[in-house]
């Protein structure tokens, strides 16, 4: 875990995001106090999306269901096969 001041983080924000993308966690301080933690975003598991859609079947408006169906259709078979929980 790396620490830097808010000023350093501000001046080097693109580099901070690059580090987070590589898996690094950065603690941002101001006046010697920790004020933020910047790190890699958690992966969004497909199983959660699939479970939500399954629970919501029939309760979502027709436009939303059509949008989801169109998005799924637009996804190629290779991607569909790698979707967790699909």
TrEMBL record:
Cross-referenced InterPro entries: Antitoxin_Phd/YefM, YefM-like_sf
Pfam families: PhdYeFM_antitox (PF02604)
Role according to the record: Antitoxin component of a type II toxin-antitoxin (TA) system.
Name under which the protein is recorded: Antitoxin
Family that this chain belongs to: Belongs to the phD/YefM antitoxin family.
Annotated source species: Nonomuraea corallina
